[in-house]
Automatic annotation (TrEMBL):
It comes from the Bacteria. SUPFAM superfamilies: Acyl-CoA N-acyltransferases (Nat). The keyword Transferase applies. Residues 1-134 form the N-acetyltransferase domain. This is IAA acetyltransferase. Keywords: Acyltransferase, Transferase. GO terms for molecular function: acyltransferase activity, transferring groups other than amino-acyl groups. Pfam families: Acetyltransf_7. The keyword Lipid metabolism does not apply. InterPro entries: Acyl_CoA_acyltransferase, Bact_Acetyltransf, GNAT_dom.
Amino acid sequence: MPLLIQQVPPTQAPIDLLLLADPSEEKIRSYLHQSGCFVASLGAMVIGACLVRPLGPTSHEIMSIAVHPEHQKSGTGTLLLKWVIDFYRRSGAQQLEVGTGSFGYQLAFYQRQGFRVTGIERNFFIDNYNKPIIEDGIRLYDMLRLVLQLTKTECGPE
């Protein structure tokens, strides 16, 4: 069965799945209705989701991307991210931004697609979440900000 990736209305966002990427339902709901919502499905089962909110006319931020645990490490997340990148590139966006933990597989996930670290938000996960967020047995404190330029730049690949 082929993977289908498509944009859906925010009202159809799979909140339970998105909670894998952002453990605060309150935070997800705060940016959900201003975001583009994309899902990856196998038949009738949604196995991946991504929310992207506009920052301005040519810049957007990936707020959350998640893949169902049974389908992680299958390439679904990479296909979904590439689809979203292509969607925004075709729409005329100039850059995509994302914030992620300062270590772990998520950082490498974005860097493999060309995102580059542009800053750090110290104590982000302490200041913005009521409960500690633990990744690979280590508590997250700081958020790294990454940017992917969607238009050709002097430093980017040809």
